[in-house]
Prior knowledge:
Blueprint: H1 4-27, H2 30-37, H3 41-55, E1 60-62, E2 67-69, H4 71-100
Antiparallel strand pairs: 1-2
Amino acid sequence: MRGRKTLCFCAFKFYEQLKFVMAVVENESFSLVAKQCFVSQSTLSNSIQALENEFGRALFNRTTRCVQLYFFGIEMLPFITSILIAEKNLFDYIEKLILAVKF
Length: 103
């Protein structure tokens, strides 16, 4: 069984990968997203590739000139979006609770 720290690290890594995917979808560029996220292009690419390996399918068709979602990526996009929205909503709610409850 994984320890709490391992699970937290895995969850953080997973959300980071999903955020990278969304940023590449929105910007259609690995190099631009790498600069915006303050990571190297190889770190970004490796992170997304690790997620693709977990899924067992590629999300993107990468060429030297463009980045496009494969059909699988298009199908996964609503789920990725939902997860990222849920994460944002969770942290917004936590912030409200912290502000509402005086310690």
